[in-house]
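Model the whole thing, not chain by chain.
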Amino acid sequence: MAEQPKGTTIILFSGDMDKAMAAFIIANGAASFGHDVTMFFTFWGLNALRKDERVPVKKGLLEKAFGKLMPRGVERFGLSKMNFAGLGPKLIKHVMKKHQTASLPELIEMAKEQGVKLVACTMTMDLLGLQKEELIDGLEYGGVGTYIGDASERNVNLFI
Amino acid sequence: MAEQPKGTTIILFSGDMDKAMAAFIIANGAASFGHDVTMFFTFWGLNALRKDERVPVKKGLLEKAFGKLMPRGVERFGLSKMNFAGLGPKLIKHVMKKHQTASLPELIEMAKEQGVKLVACTMTMDLLGLQKEELIDGLEYGGVGTYIGDASERNVNLFI
Amino acid sequence: MAEQPKGTTIILFSGDMDKAMAAFIIANGAASFGHDVTMFFTFWGLNALRKDERVPVKKGLLEKAFGKLMPRGVERFGLSKMNFAGLGPKLIKHVMKKHQTASLPELIEMAKEQGVKLVACTMTMDLLGLQKEELIDGLEYGGVGTYIGDASERNVNLFI
């Protein structure tokens, strides 16, 4: 089976903490396994790449509203289930610490260190009014063409 | 890597506007890239293929209720997040127009023009009581076997 | 195209009845088609593998709370849409019986009979405090490495 290219792409569409965790755990696992890995962050998932702090950039009113309504980074994500108005994520973080599981920010750092390619969807940036200054460092920028180009050469392609 | 077949299948399970947009953007991107593309519409995603207008067909009570409770076509879909009782989709449509992004009905037309194969899940049609007359033109009809047959020959297979 | 390995993996992350049904229908379809099939149950999806009855095991307080808040098995799953406080799943089960569609417990049995490999995510078991005694028989246990190992050799890899 050596003829087949091995590799992974993950589209992170969702802006939920649990789904982002799953995405980064799979990405890191695949990278350890020797796969080329690309993560493509689109729609709500793009918020995973936002900086923690407020970044002063010039924006229209609607873009400002979007920016405020959406979470700045994974530390502010909620759960897709059992969120309980923010209590759920705290409980999960608590049990993760207890079991010495890597936190989401640590998983992102690990992904960068392992050479996982993190791509911010430029169409989403346009629509939601998010600017490069507001996103973390070490990203690439691209659209659906970038995604398809990588996915075409891989066999593990997930939409999360 | 020429030995590997290139191609895309997308299962649209979700009935959310944002996820349907992602599905059609990827499908159109893959088709432009030269992929054979199949989209398989199942469960709530099947509603993306419903005609906009009410179609008079004979149905049982339960099927009538399902038909009324579920949206007729993508224009009536809500968002998976920040729906705000229907305000969210309006805002998104507004910014899409502003950025001259193709609307969801335009993306569906584009997919047809590019030869993307649109398959309505017949099991879902049976369960929810949706009939061919209620769905848009230019569809194929099939079950899980149709999906697996196509996915087996492709490498980019997504569930949305 | 004989050079390409054919096979399917499905990550069931979601704990919704409709998504679990989709996952098992695809898994069974792929197995009938001759694919090697692995299903990996993680996060909320792990609840699909819980026994129906309460199993007396020793647990901490938090693990007890998680165990009670999450559904014991697929028969207690809700719908991702139109759940209507539990009425939705009953309606769906009703129409499924009317159309003689296999129920979710039957689909799980079928998957076992067809040799679908069912893997319980051990990291999730640790985090949520679920123990082997609480899960149904006939499972394998593994982490992300187990998943990547199988997905690397397959071309249909879905995240549900």
